[in-house]
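re: ur question from yesterday

yeah so i grabbed the chain u mentioned. its 355 aa long if i counted rite. heres the sequnce exactly as i have it in my notes:
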Amino acid sequence: MTIRDMTENTNNHLANYWQKITGDKIQCLLCPRHCRLNDGQSGFCSVRQNIKGKLILTTYGLCSGLAIDPIEKKPLYHFFPGGNVLSFGTAGCNLDCSFCQNWHLSRADAKSYPGQKASPSFIAQTALKEKCIGVAFTYNEPSIFAEYAIDTAQECHKAGLQTVAVTSGYIEGAAREDFYKVMDAANVDLKSFNNDFYREFCHGDLKTVLDTLLHIKEKTKTWLEITTLLIPYLNDSPKEINELCAWVKKYLGNCVPIHFSAFHPDYKMTGINATGKEIINQAREIAHSKGLKYVYTGNIHDPSGSTTFCPNCGETLIKRAFFSVTANNLADGNKCPKCFNSGDAYLIIDKTKKR
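ran it thru and got these structure tokens back, copy pasting raw so excuse formatting
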């Protein structure tokens, strides 16, 4: 989509979530890295920089492009199904995943990937103009441009639009609270249930992500879905999938939708084979055996794995073909047409919902 925002360039924006240490040295407090930065240095994320003793978000007001996507592509299957969102990202990331599928953005900074001007109000108004249900912060990690995302979310809410974060969940403290306070939905990428995996292949930690999931569930009204990309021999063992599903059920509940997605070779993992359909289906079976009600498959052609079924009687509620809704059979907005059960409302958010 062509971007023609003629507003004043707003990059090099004073950031929040930092403290002075001594002189011009400061410390970022957005994520667990707590980067300590001398004047001129950028954090691990590449876009939060110490400029003359102040933390600056160098990508504020600069996006990597705007695109209209089906909400199912995020993936969110239980949030305004069939709706479109205006998607955008910036550059940089506070993780470094060896299997990153958007590495050209996540490993870039404001200089190497300067982006195009798009103010928060421009993004919200564009979403309205394009008849989208809202805006998705995606393509790279949105928490590292929290100030830009939060300001954009506030503009969206003024316009009656929804806000969606597609995120690793690698954020903490006040930044976590402020960020999810303005997000209507989030798909959190739970990359593994093994801290060694996070350390070796993501240069992060599992606990922070689990804490974020608990925060969303317990302290916000943010709609939550989870995605786990399964990589052969690294995070796809039945033991790990069992542990992951058991944790989700115990701490998040059995109605949180979870998506098991197939890996394809990319970035630093071009020597590993793509995930076979049988591995994805095995994970789905394990999740069902643990009592999770809504389990989906991704990056493979699997009609059953992309369909929402009534957990009470098994009736087909929503059929999808890849990212398109081909049939929505819900009665009265959220009831099964066969048994009329809506005990958990099938977790489908009605399109008339306003924040």
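noticed a couple things. The helical segments are 103-106, 120-129, 146-158, 173-181, 195-202, 206-219, 238-251, 277-289. also Residues 351-355 have pLDDT under 50 and may be disordered.
anyway ttyl
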